[in-house]
Amino acid sequence: MPDLDQEIRRRRTFAIISHPDAGKTTLTEKLLLYGGAIREAGSVKAKKGGQAATSDWMELEKKRGISITSSALQFEYEGHCVNLLDTPGHQDFSEDTYRTLVAADAALMLIDGAKGVEPQTIKLFKVCRDRGIPIVTVVNKMDRPARPPLDLMDEVEKTLGITVVPATWPIGSGDDFKGVYSLRDRRIFLFERTAHNATKAAVQTTGPDDPQLAEAIGARLHGQLLEDLQMVEECVQPFELQAFLDQQISPMFFCSALVNFGVENILQRFLEIAPTPGPLPTIDSEIAPNAPFFSGFVYKVAANMDKMHRDRIAFLRVTSGHFERGMSAKHLRLGREVRLSHPHRFFGQERVSIEDAWPGDVIGLINPGMFRVGDVLSAGPTFEVRNFPRFAPEIFAQVAPREPSMSKGFGKGLAQLGEEGVVQVFWPRVGAREPILGAVGELQLQVFEARLESEYGVDLRLDRKPWTRARWVQNVTPEVLEILPMVVRDESDRYVALFNSEFEIDYAKSRYKGLELYDHPPAEEDLG
Ligand code: G4P
Q1: Interval 379-398: pLDDT, tens
Q2: Cα(327)–Cα(340) distance, rounded to whole angstroms?
Q3: How far is the CA of 136 from the centre of ligand 1 (A)?
Q4: Rounded CA gap, 168 and 191, in Å?
Q5: Whole-model pTM?
Q6: Contact criterion met (CB below 8 Å) for 514 and 479
Q7: Ligand 1: which residue has its CA nearest to atom 21?
Q8: Domains of the chain with bracketed CATH
Q9: Is the pLDDT of residue 519 over 90?
Q10: Pairing mode of beta strands 336-339, 328-331
Q11: Which of 110, 258, 259, 261 has most ligand 1 atoms within 8 Å of its beta carbon, as the pocket-test mutant?
Q12: For 221-255, how does the pLDDT look when each residue is reduced to its tens digit (9 = 90+)?
């Protein structure tokens, strides 16, 4: 019988955050390869022009309209049980992308070595920061011309406000790329251009001035390496595990995911330093992962748009105890016992029925409308949890049914899909009473429209609006309402101001000194 503490100790649950095209799919594929979850590179992503492989993970789902399966992948690696949570990007980018980070204990931030920190990276980093999860930085595509490593370090520090501590140091880039030097153990990983695995066995050196090194990488690059490392030694603080766990520092690695260079080394080190599954915060305390009862929370509800399989799946992250198939647990919001008889794990298009799960694991529950994002299950005591975080929308549309006869279905659909978290619903304070939908990605509006039509028979009139920022307003006074260009109310009747730009926000603040704006709703218990 597996032991709860042991299962917790060997688990790591994390997500990869990146800007589109930085190489997340490629890196995911290589990680799965090490985990033995797939046998051949190229099976995660559809090969160009070719038939998609059966275990294709993302591309196929895009064709189906919305992903229900790309949610969490589990694999074993050197005694660890790794849960890799998918953070949808590209056209799939939505509030789900942010919500997934609430279920992760750590993040791997992937950066394109030539492009540096990009907009999507900044947004996702900020969510990780707010969640308090430690972040490892990985610079990818070193086989292509990349920016100097000191430049990249500087950019991460300045743009994201976290101290970078290099774990490895690249030797050249592009055609000149010779490998990476591991600062911690003074090993050098030499790069060899081959089709599959470009990593040669690591060579132990006595330090950067080891003559072996000069011989392996040539005098010019060796000179550069010595210069860089001297700079690093002078200005960079040493890696300290606690500082990493406290988000004060981010270790930085360099790799080339495409040619599988440096990836395994990153995985090994990541598993060493990444935290084990964290507790579930409650209003007045927390539930420890090794509490003697099962608990978990729903971080995502996905609906399958395929008419043949129109089911909904609630993705639950286990937060404590041992989950066993068929067990019952209390649904805290509904205040009643529910039987969890059909738990699944997903891989590609396959659904695998699971027998049990442990803290840090993700299980998919077939959801007959019972689960919403933020719902908590407990097979032990009843407790109160904080509201699941909401994220400021950036895309807005005013909506109404095309025909007056559809009003009833429209009202019902709006309420239910809003509760499910498909979109955020706002109500104008004055003027037209037509609701305004807020989303962080286009896909959310498309899903809302499609589901309203297929599930509620409502043909939607959707009028896109130009706002790009939403800010929750604290301490509303008549004067404040006068100053703000557009104020709406959210589902909980809180005031939200909508703006077109950062400039507009600054202008409003300059006109009213006491204006308090937040990019997330203040927690209910903090409202007083
Ligand atoms: P994403 O999921 O973050 O959006 O990125 P993805 O892995 O799809 O990679 C985006 C492009 O960058 C792909 O090229 C991929 O092959 C390439 N790439 C990823 N990692 C590396 C790397 O380490 N080195 C180099 N040189 N390229 C890398 P593509 O041409 O868009 O697609 P494909 O034809 O390769 O599939």
Answers
A1: 999 998 888 888 999 999 99
A2: 6
A3: 20
A4: 14
A5: 0.89
A6: no
A7: 258
A8: 4-273 (3.40.50.300), 280-378 (2.40.30.10), 395-526 (3.30.70.3280)
A9: no
A10: antiparallel
A11: 258
A12: 999 999 999 998 888 889 999 999 999 999 999 99
